[in-house]
TrEMBL record:
Ranges for domain PilZ: 17-99
InterPro entries: PilZ_domain
Gene3D superfamilies from the UniProt entry: predicted glycosyltransferase like domains (2.40.10.220)
MF terms (GO), sorted A to Z: cyclic-di-GMP binding
Name this polypeptide is given: PilZ domain-containing protein
SUPFAM superfamilies registered for this protein in UniProt: PilZ domain-like (SSF141371)
Pfam families linked: PilZ
Annotated signal peptide: none
Length: 119
């Protein structure tokens, strides 16, 4: 009997994967967590979330409410999903209009790019 590794992982761990495709971007932004404001660069973005490479540490735990301030998109409210090696992943708050702002950005301004550097 053969099992696929994907079905075993999803069946045993119940991992929730990202529902929308990621797009690489070259945008600058800032993440606000209470009074702390940290500048960063958008690594990738989707209609459900955003990942940023931060210039300095941001000590926010998973589930913390944050706000991303990006000149090209606007203010995006969300929750920290993960942090690792100076990067942060943020899932947009479903009750905000962040998804609509990102969809508008994709419709009018986004250009596909390839990453220059990889970690």
């Amino acid at each position: 009997m053969q099992f696929s590794s994907k079905s075993l992982v999803q069946g045993n761990l119940k991992i929730k994967t990202r529902g929308s495709p990621r797009h690489h971007a070259r945008l600058t932004g800032q993440v606000r967590y209470f009074t702390k404001l940290v500048a960063g660069r958008v690594v990738d973005i989707s209609t459900n979330g955003i990942a940023l490479d931060l210039q300095s540490p941001l000590y926010a735990a998973a589930g913390s409410k944050v706000r991303v301030e990006c000149d090209d998109i606007g203010l995006l409210d969300g929750f920290v999903r993960w942090t690792h090696n100076g990067r942060i992943g943020i899932e947009f708050d479903r009750s905000s209009n962040a998804s609509a702002k990102v969809a508008s950005y994709f419709r009018f301004f986004h250009k596909d790019i390839k990453p220059v550097l990889k970690r």
